[in-house]
Each structure stands twice: as structure tokens, then as C-alpha cells.
Amino acid sequence: MSVALQPAPALDVARVRRDFPILARTVRGKPLVFLDSAASAQKPRAVIEAMVRCMETAYANVHRGAYHLSEVATESYEAARAAAARFLNAADPREIVFTRNSTEAINLVAHSWGRGVMRPGQAVLVSEMEHHANLVPWQMLRDDGRGIELRVCRVTDEGELDLEDLAAKLADGKVGLVAVTHMSNVLGTVTPAERIVALAHAHGAKVLLDGSQAAVHRRVDVRAIGCDFYCFTGHKLYGPTGIGVLWARLEHLERMPPFLGGGDMIAGVTLERSEWAPPPAKFEAGTPPIIEAVGLHAALDYVAAIGLPAIEAHERALVDHAMRRLSGVEGLTLLGRARDRGGVFSFVLDNAHPHDLSTLLDRAGIAVRAGRHCAEPLHARFGLEGGTCRASFGLYTTREEIDLLADALVRAREFFA
Amino acid sequence: MFDDLRDLYQEVILDHGRRPRNFRRLEDADRAARGDNPLCGDRLELWLKLAPDGRIADAAFLGRGCAISMASASLLTETVKGKTPEQAKALGEKVRTLAMTGACPECDGALAEDMERLAPLSGVHEFPSRVKCATLAWHTLKAALEGSKEATSE
Ligand SMILES: Cc1ncc(COP(=O)(O)O)c(C=O)c1O
């Protein structure tokens, strides 16, 4: 055992697991081994109960009624915004826009910044390891006839962002926005956010980080990172589906035209024209995800109570253990060998197709995802058009579950021999 | 650990999955179609050669996918040879039923022998997410015979 200089308060995984009701269930007669948290995480009782409590005692539409319940609901909704701002260490809660998920957050930026602020001749720079959510909106922007180019930064064989290529593609100063993932949902690679920002800003480009995975595993401080846009999605962070967060510097939000039009996003409307409300309301047209915001708030509080340092330490131990156990499985190839990585492992077994493998693992009660994980270009980059299996960890994942996976993989290889 | 999966992965499936038959391009094909399962990346191309009387004289395919989809395509190329397009399509319908329900109530008589050969595909009915693996090749066959170029198993 190595001794950390400042030991993080340890995470008591057995206790954490008791907070997640679903982990008590069995699948096909076996205890559930849930290794698909990168697709969506399970929910702690605190989240479930907060949402139920909201609906049972404090629910009404927000920002609309001058009656008690609506005021209470508005307070809860705005408290969730403040919690999201604290979570990211944002300077001001007005920099937090609630969306449906990360996908919508990125589409918002592609629409309002890409179409409203960027100029013809400018480029957006993404990477080969993007989730489709951070690729397709930019392809749509490129194909929109506005003269915006789309560039793609290469990924190294190790599965890291090729920073030389990034610099080369920034060199001509045409890139207006670098939009890259903060952690790959396939490779587990954590990208060097501060360096990306330094490089991009030196060349006059803004930076959007897709934190859908990273925010679950690392402490994120948008002011320390220095980026311009950051997004994450509630359901991967032990919160409910239907809510995501876009953080952007207030000055950017002020410059950007709205995304969707409708109620709540206006300061005044006549039949001829409308005045936009100030941010964040400008970007939150229609009835927002009120109950979901309450659930997200509870999830952020839950994570904060355990502590991100403890979560990080727990995950680092799991990653090391998984590295050891999985590299011991004969015939198994792990995708990506990044130095800085989180708890996401994609792999192929030499004699089993990923779908056959995931069916087998399911029989052992082990839930992993098979396919291309919404990252087809990345799979093509590594010559794995047939997909991979992916095991991903949450704060409730145990060493024993990784052992079960490794053992099952050995047995699966024998099965297909 | 996986003994109860032997119904799904019968030896026939594993064998055809590992060494698919008629796994080649038919250069002078009369009919061809591509089958795609965009969700999982399974993809195959199927070629048919027709005899002067319209029967299927030869069938071959290339593609990539799981053991079940490869085995299903491989078994398809073996069973449709000598059939009229109508017979082949009717067989495809039966395979769909077989894959979805695990049984084929009207599969006796003329079809009995073919269906016996295809019976190992019935194992997927207990795995809803895998049914499309077994049916992709048969959707592709239908597309080829009806003259459309693409099939998906959605
Ligand atoms: C890296 C990354 N970006 C974006 C997304 C999209 O998240 P959502 O589907 O919640 O919009 C995901 C997850 O699916 C992801 O892993």
C-alpha cells in the first residue's frame, strides 16, 4: 500500500450501496452487478425521496404564480441552480442554464453561439473521441451554409488527445471554438483541460468541455480550468433523467441569442416582437424540469456529502484493480491506455463478439454495455467497427464486482473456445 | 457458469458463427441487398443467383456481426438454395416467428426439414435484445428478392 500525502476520507462502499435501493435486487437469480454507470447511473434514496417530497408537498409551476406553492417551487428550482453553480465553482448562479441533458446543452451552444456569435470562415475543433452528442451538432452547424468549418483533432494510439495535432489545427487562428470531451465515455481518458484551454485561448478560440463523464468522477472547477462552456447531464451523476446543466460565462450568455422561444424566456412580448429575458431565463423557454432540478440538487448534495476526494480515491483504487485484473484475462484487449483515466473500460475478447459476450455476462448478473457507445468514429479509429464491451464504475462499485467480471470473462472465453 | 446458455449458443450456432458457410461475394449475382443493424453495428451483404426458372441457384454473403447473426446468415445461404423466391420469403416469415416465439406452429409438412435445420435460431426468443440478430439476414433476403437495396432489422 502506498501512503497518500493527504489521505482522502475513505468511502465506505458497503454503506453507500445501502443508499441505492436498486442494488438490492437480483437479476436472473443472481445479485445485480451493475457495470453500466457511464450510460446512466443508479439513484440513491435521497434523490428518489426528494423528488417524491417535492411532488407531495411543494409542487407548482415556477416563476408564474404569486401564491405560496409556486413561490416554494420557484425557490427549490433556484436553489438547485445555486447548487449546480457551487458544484462547478461558477462565479454566479446566473451562469447555470438547465437543459434536458448534455445533448441539449451542446445543441444550445451550437445554435446560439455557433449560429449567433461565430462568423463565416471560423472553425469548430472537436476530437476523434467525442460522443455523438459533441459531434453531430457541429456537423449540423458546418452543413448549415454559414461557412463554418469543422476540424477534428486526432487521438493517439494510447487513447489520449494528440496535443500536437490540437496545436497544429489551432495555428491559423481560424478556430473559434474548441469543443472536446473532458473524459471519454469509451476510453476513460481524462483530457488535460487546463492545457487545452491555454492552447485554445492563446489562439483566440473559446473552449467547451463536455463533462458528461468527468463531472461524475472528478472535482470540476470551471474557474480554475478557465473554460468558456461546460456541460453535464443529471442522470449520470446519480440524479434523474430529463435534466442537464450548461455552464457558460455570463458575458457569453449575454451575447448569445436564445435557443428555443416561448414562455419564461421573454421580458416582454407584443404581437410584433419580443424582448429577451436576461440569462439564464433567456435559455429556459417553457416549463422547466422542476422535479428533476430538485432531484439533481439532492444528487449534488449526496455527492458532496460523500466528498469528491473520497469518490476520486475510491475510483482510482478501482481503476488500478481493474487494470490488474483485466490485463490478466487472456485474449482480452483493452481500448486505450491513457495515463490519466477514470473508471470506464472498453474491451474486446478475441473469440467473442461484444454482443455475445454481453449476453453471457448478463447471465452472470453482470450488466455491461455492448456496441459503439455513441462513439462510432472512435471505434472506426481503432478498427473496431463491430463495437466493444464497456464496463464502467460508479461510487457504489466494488472490487468484488470487478473480480466477478474478470472471472466471468475467463469463463466466457472458454465458452466460445 | 453459462450452462443455461447452451440453448442459445448451440453447437450449430457456434460452428456457423465461427466458420460461416458461403462467406464470399457472388460476382454475377442477380439480386443483392445490404442489411444493417445500426444499433449494434452488425452489417452484411447478401447476393443471390437465380436459375432460369427463377429459383435461387446460389446464395452467399459477407459481413460482420455476432455469432447469432453470422450463423443465421450462414444457415440462410444453405437453406434457400433451390427455393423459389416465394418459398424463400415464406421461410423467412417462419424464421421471424421462430425467433420471436421460440416455436413455429405451422412449420410441418413441406417446411419441416428446413425448419429443423433452422431450429437452433429459436433460442433467441428468450433474449428480446437479440432477436434482431437472428432476423437481420432474413430481412436482407426479403429486401434482395423485392428489389430494395437496404434492409434494417429495426
Ligand atoms: C461523453 C458524453 N457526452 C455526452 C453524452 C450525452 O449525454 P445525454 O444523453 O444525457 O445527453 C454522454 C452520455 O451518453 C457522454 O458519455
How big a fraction of the residues of chain A is strand?
15-25%
- Please, how many domains of chain B? 1
Kindly state the percentage of residues in helix of chain B: 25-40%
* Largest interface chains and counts: A-B, 22 and 21 residues
CATH fold annotation of the largest domain in chain A: Aspartate Aminotransferase, domain 2
Query: Would you identify the CATH architecture of chain B?
Result: Alpha-Beta Complex
Count of runs of 4 or more consecutive helical residues of chain A: 15
Using the 3D structure, state the CATH architecture of the largest domain in chain A.
Answer: 3-Layer(aba) Sandwich
The CATH class of the largest domain in chain A, by name, is: Alpha Beta
Compute the average pLDDT of chain A: 95
Number of helices of chain B: 5
- Helix-strand category of chain B: alpha+beta
User: Average pLDDT of chain B, to the nearest integer?
Assistant: 91
Number of strands of chain A: 17
What this model shows, in words?
Chain A has 15 helices and 17 strands. Chain A has helices at residues 13-18, 45-57, 68-88, 102-115, 136-142, 163-170, 193-202, 214-217, 222-225, 250-255, 290-306, 308-327, 354-363, 376-381, 399-415, and strands spanning 26-27, 30-31, 33-34, 96-99, 123-127, 149-153, 175-181, 206-210, 229-233, 244-248, 266-269, 274-276, 332-334, 344-349, 366-367, 369-371, 388-392. In chain A, helix 7 links the parallel strand 7 (175-181) and strand 8 (206-210). The longest helix of chain A has 21 residues, at 68-88. The model of chain A has no long low-confidence stretch (mean pLDDT 95). Chain B has one domain: Sufe protein. Chain: A (Alpha-Beta Complex), CATH 3.90.1010. Chain B has helices at 11-18, 67-79, 85-101, 112-118, 131-145, and strands at 31-37, 42-50, 56-64, 150-152. In chain B, a hairpin with a 5-residue loop joins strand 2 and strand 3. The radius of gyration of chain B is 14 Å and the shape is globular. Bound molecules: pyridoxal-5'-phosphate. Chain A: It is an enzyme of class 2 (transferase).
